[in-house]
Amino acid sequence: MKRTSIKSRLVTAAMLILTAVYPVFMVMMTGAGLIYNRSTYGERICITGMLLIVSGAAVTAGALLSLPKKRSSAVISLILTAAGLTLCLCMLHILTSHADSAGWSDNFSMEPVSALYRRRILPSVIPAAMAAVKAVTAFINGTRK
Hints:
Layout: H1 2-36, H2 38-41, H3 43-65, H4 71-102, H5 113-121, H6 125-141
Helix pairs in contact: 1-3, 1-6, 3-4, 3-6, 4-5, 4-6
């Protein structure tokens, strides 16, 4: 019994750390960078940046709401996580399509910027999936409040 409790706490800690790194830092800071440079990128990319921030906040809220063992918070967590991840991946597609069509590349390595965005944003799937699994588990085993 004690061993499963330790494993559960380690999984929760890993989920929180990954959430802090990917949806909070990578996704939201990418969105903030797009908004900061809006004069260069244009209105469409600025809106994409705003929606990236919203999606990162939704995935983060979903991860935090998966922590209590209540069914109501588990349902809200699952909805927020799924909506945030879907929005994040849609914005990633729009951003990488625009970067490829505009021919954006890194100044030093000449690597396409779309690959950089994929490497930064795509790992957000991992904490979102962990939060969704925790939310489903909390819904099945949780209290009715």
